[in-house]
Known about the structure:
- By secondary structure, the protein is of the alpha+beta class.
- The chain has one domain: L-amino peptidase D-ALA esterase/amidase (4-Layer Sandwich), CATH 3.60.70.12.
- The protein is built from 7 helices and 13 strands.
- The protein has helices at 43-53, 87-96, 175-181, 184-192, 217-234, 261-281, 292-297; strands at 2-6, 13-14, 30-34, 68-72, 114-115, 125-126, 128-136, 139-148, 152-154, 161-163, 204-211, 235-236, 246-251.
- It has a 5-stranded mixed sheet. A 3-stranded mixed sheet has the order 2-4-3, with helices on one face.
- The protein starts with a strand and ends with a helix.
Amino acid sequence: MAAVDVRGGAPGTRETDLLRPGNLVKRIHAVLLAGGSAFGLDAAAGVMRYLEERGVGFPTPAGPVPIVVGAVLYDLSVGRADVRPDAAAGYAACQAATGGRIPQGSVGAGTGATVGKALSPQRAVKGGIGSASELVDGLSVGALVVVNSFGEVVDPDSGRVLAGPRDDKGGFLSTLDVLREAAPSALFSAFTNSAEGGCASGATTIGVVATDARLSRDQAYRLAVMAHDGLSRAVRPAHTPLDGDVLFALATGAAPAPVDLTTLGALAARAVERAIVRAVTEAKGLAGVPSAREWTEG
């Protein structure tokens, strides 16, 4: 069972309309999170081929049709813009999938992710991909989040900036202070245009919260909505016109325990917070963009 909540003003998504209430398909077979901007959606073709070869999909008279939803982020300004996910990459990702602990930081969809772009993308630090989970009353809920945000990442408990716009002293400036001082038109121009006159970078936080609880579609949607609270607490600001923030919610129904959706949603948001923090603390510098740790530790 799946649902989605799209909060950002610049999303790049695939098959999200079918997850709306009232539509025929309620269950999906894969979620794609990728870099490469809209080009990265091509990777879904490889995921579909992998599933089709194994007879997985929505039943139709002509055979199963795999339902693959997805979201992408803009990272074309980090490294080579012509290196981006394609169908072969999507297929290879399926082949490499495994259970257990997963790599975090500057890997997968988080490879080219950056964070803290209020002073221009050239003053950002590396973002990445992070994961975390929570347990309650026999149920589990986990989050996998790719952080490529316009805003800074903060410690949700202390409010301390963990990754944000780089200052000249090996620290970070407050995005809110930058926004107060910058003219909106100048800020938007600096964000969207590079010295060469092209788009310099984009912003997006995308991810999945998944639980073994048995949920209806409406409940799964509420889980996605509540999970965004964690994004808002860890990324400041979130859901801007420049971000394409998207969270999917998945429910396998494998656990028989009764569901307290309020508690499950609150813990999903906490898992999102922790996943976002891990995304930036596990990141490594790439293509001239330092990680937060590399910048602060010199």
